[in-house]
Amino acid sequence: MAFNELLAIRVRTSVALFPEEFTEKKMFGGLVFLYNGKMTIGIVKEKLAVRVISSKMGELLAKENIQPMDFTKKAMKEFLYVLPDAIKTEEQLQFFIELGIEHAKTKRNLMQLFYSPDINSESKQYNFSKEESKHIVRVLRKKEGDILNITNGKGILFTVEITIADAKNCLVQINTTKQIENHDYNLHIAIAPTKMNDRMEWFLEKATEIGIDEITPIFCDNSERKVIKKERFDKIIQSAMKQSLQMQLPKLNEAVSFKEFINQDFTGQLFIAHCEEQEKTQLHSQVTPKVNYTILIGPEGDFSTNEIKLAMSNGFAPVALGNTRLRTETAGIAACHTVALLNTSN
User: Rounded to 5, what percent of the chain is helix, strand, coil?
Assistant: First the structure.
């Protein structure tokens, strides 16, 4: 479906006063102009499509040469078509452009983040799953025209607009994509699962909020828990990523034995936090900013002497996380926060 190129030139000239706020995108078989990522005005064949706040729809539709926008075979909320006879002059065109901008400014884009791993930068539309669609439409009461934010957990933020608010199959149009830079270091914490699952879940949630890249559950000589529920742990990490508005999903590896983990090849700085009485330095004095870190956190009964020796023989430096004895999950958070804080201040 072609669009009127002359009308497109006229619109571009009119929005030239907003060079940073307006972007163009081909949608609906025509051309759409986005104001700060929100669909504002468009051109479909010879018609100008405009988004208008609800309170002005009735008054405008009562005028000649203005029609409901029925692109989906039913009138779309807060959309209308303007026929060519209503925009003969530049003043008339500017009037409708300003209506579109007014609508965009009233739509506060509150950052509520959704996670969809299968969306990518080549996508033009996206269908939410049945479960997510029900949550968006029935629970959050979202409707056609509402703006949502999605990440694929790979550093990309998608600004999308609901085109079909169906509780079984919510469809969105992708307006903009933006690559969000992650922190300039990589933190991998290998931690023994706690005896009580809720404590491990708390660690996963808070570490994700603070900023972590990779987590490996490790089974040690003194571990009291030898089984984890990875699927549940994954969901907790995803939820924490969304809550903390991060675009990079931490990687949760399969659980492995301590010996299996320690015999890998590592890069960057390597640390083991343990409680045995031996010479150790504080972690905060050892961290070099902007590198890779691998930190070992032991179980409630600490690492065994053999495990500590094995780690040190593989290049792991013994460190302390303060002057008090910490629970496993607290030690993991202390290590995570120390690395994040020292990198933030540099």
Answer: 35, 30, 40
